[in-house]
Automatic annotation (TrEMBL):
This is trimethyllysine dioxygenase. Belongs to the gamma-BBH/TMLD family. It comes from Penicillium salamii. One of its GO terms (cellular component) is mitochondrion. Its cofactor is Fe(2+); L-ascorbate.
Amino acid sequence: MAYSFEVEGVEQTYQATPLFYQQLGMSSSKIILEEEANYLKISQESPAPKPQLTTREWKGRYEAAWSRPDILKIPRVRRGNKEVTLQLENCQCPKCIHPDTKQRASDTFAIPLKVKANSVEHKETGLEISWSDNHTGFYPYEWLHPHTQNKHGDRLEQNRLKPARDTAPGPRTFNPVPASDQSPRISYDEVMSDDKRLSVWLQLIWTRGFCFVDGVPTTPEATKGLIERIAFIRHTHYGGFWDFTADLTFKDTAYTNEFLGAHTDNTYFTDPARLQLFHLLSHTDGSGGENLLVDGFAAAAQLRSENPTHYDELARHRHPWHASGNDDSCIQPSAQAPVFSIHPDLDKMYQIRWNDYDRAPKVNWSAEEQLAWYRAARHYNEILQSREMWQKLEPGSALIFDNWRMLHGRSQFTGKRRMCGGYINNDDYISRLRMLKYGRECVLNNLGNVRNVSSNPYSIV
Ligand SMILES: [Fe+2]
Ligand SMILES: [Zn+2]
């Protein structure tokens, strides 16, 4: 018997051996599949540990090979040893995944433990599997691809915490001290009216760490609207959208005019705000107040190349943080957090907490441990200072940056300065970015896929 498929418009035929079919649905021994020049070699291993129904990709198609009662494995030989584990509970049919809510609609616990796959059919858009509990399941090819995994257990590795090794996801570029004319910029009118330009804007923030928006009307309302074009504004104990004037001629010191060294905001939150937008509405009767940005990832990469031990110290040693300025609150993250957070799935740095103003005392650290941390922190601080970019904000040009990556600060200033701005949550920004960049279908097809490849929306974190 032969399978025939169409692959990229070309009709292909695959001749399966009799054994191939003989073993379909059987459960007494394990079938081993090996790829030869132009055919599949099927051999038998006995005794088998457990019965399995296995299919494999062949010339771009998935082939059924053999069965285990509840799990279907699909090795993908063409890109190394990949396989996918299919379970009835992961069925993607409209009965199992609600078409509108995209939520699971089947009762996992009603599935018999010993359910088995009776047959596998290759349909035009996916695998149809007939399960022994009379459910006909469907697994689209578009969904199968992102759900394959390395055969030799990197699945298990992914759930372990790894030592710090890398600093940032590949598609992001480090910017060593760009001149101000190299700063990414985009126009307000475009991002407000065109979703494609909005997508470009969000990608610039992600790849470069910051972006200027030009032509913003110099009003709080327009600035608020610009932030809300991405997502709702995040409220904190300081409020939501802010708009304040530091008016030193009237000695209003509610907000200071002092120098602020490079830092990230919200080191004390369990979930620090991801984006921050500033817009200088006016600055009169004075000078100064330039804004400072530093690429913390680039600085971390430099630290790692100059002294891996220092890098490791800041990535591995968790530190306490707090915000206690308001009389009625003392905010601390629910778990202490390191300066460099390494992503547990992607093995990349994805978040920096750096705020010397907000560090809490180290308790239960030995003198040696403390010394090691200060040495590393001092080194990082020196690198940060050598990479600072200074820009004078102008009314009409809003600055937005990634608070998980870029450190910000400002110089002293005189005169009357009115600034406004706000925060956006990580989850809402990343959701918007992924949806605009990849499209809803691709994002949904990759749910649960944690591979660090640029085609996977999850590689954007
Ligand atoms: Fe700040
Ligand atoms: Zn189903």
